[in-house]
Specification:
By secondary structure, the chain is α+β, with helices and mostly antiparallel strands. It is 34% helix and 20% strand. It contains 7 helices and 11 strands. A hairpin with a 5-residue loop joins strand 10 and strand 11. Helix 3 runs parallel beside helix 7. The protein is globular, with a radius of gyration of 23 Å. It comes from Aquirufa novilacunae.
Length: 241
């Protein structure tokens, strides 16, 4: 008798509990890593803060991460481009210069794929920051943007003062950058002068770096495309990151 009752329970009742469990906890929660923890300048330790809405499986405290600092540059139209215009946006940043004959065309071509995938999506923006700002004035950037069919208003080519761009790239986006002519005046070839990263940097709506990708590698850019979609899904499903 007891054996039959147990079997009946398994057959009729257990599926109900499984269904309720899946309904309560079975929602897919995609996640992407965050990069560059903020360091307390007095203690040298990673900063921590209380989570606003922790999930059931998350700790009360969470790591605080650095955000891209505020900046003001000039776009290919000669207009001021402020970091404030990126608030609430997901964006991908690349680093290039128009005289570059090595990796820059490859990177920009791959970034064109990102544009094509998210063309007209107001949530996704693209930035290409010149590391040769003295030469790359807005008219040079405008010609370069046309060469790659950049969608005006979504893909921004930026220049500005070197004293602002170089610290922003090094300490804000955390990618390597150097002007070799500062150390060796004999260097004249632009491709030997500006030593910059091939990385694309994915930044979320809060200004936190969510990924680094080799902009010359199609598979890496394929991963970027997927992870932008994951990030969009995270925002659309629970409004968090």
């Amino acid at each position: 008798m007891y054996k039959k009752t147990g079997i009946l329970f398994l057959v009729l009742i257990l599926p109900v509990f499984i269904y309720l469990g899946l309904k309560a906890f079975g929602t897919n929660h995609f996640s992407l890593p965050r990069y560059i923890p903020a360091i307390d300048s007095t203690t040298g330790e990673i900063k921590m803060a209380k989570r606003l809405n922790p999930r059931w499986n998350e700790s009360e405290m969470d790591t605080v991460f650095q955000t891209i600092p505020d900046f003001s540059l000039t776009d290919e139209s000669g207009k001021v481009f402020s970091a404030k215009s990126l608030q609430g946006k997901i964006y991908v940043t690349s680093f290039f210069f128009t005289r570059c004959g090595t990796i820059c065309p490859k990177i920009t071509s791959q970034l064109s794929r990102v544009q094509d995938t998210f063309l007209g999506d107001p949530e996704v923006q693209l930035l290409s920051i010149s590391v040769d700002p003295k030469f790359d004035q807005p008219e040079k950037l405008a010609l370069y943007s046309k060469r790659f069919d950049a969608n005006k208003g979504q893909w921004h080519f930026l220049t500005g003062e070197k004293k602002m761009i170089y610290p922003l790239v090094l300490k804000g986006f955390h990618v390597p950058l150097a002007d070799a002519s500062e150390y060796d005046a004999a260097i004249k070839n632009p491709d030997e002068t500006f030593i910059h990263s091939e990385r694309l940097v994915l930044v979320d709506k809060e200004g936190i770096i969510r990924g680094f990708y080799d902009g010359t590698d199609k598979k890496e850019v394929d991963r970027l495309l997927v992870e932008i979609k994951v990030l969009k899904n995270i925002y659309s499903t629970d409004g968090s990151n």
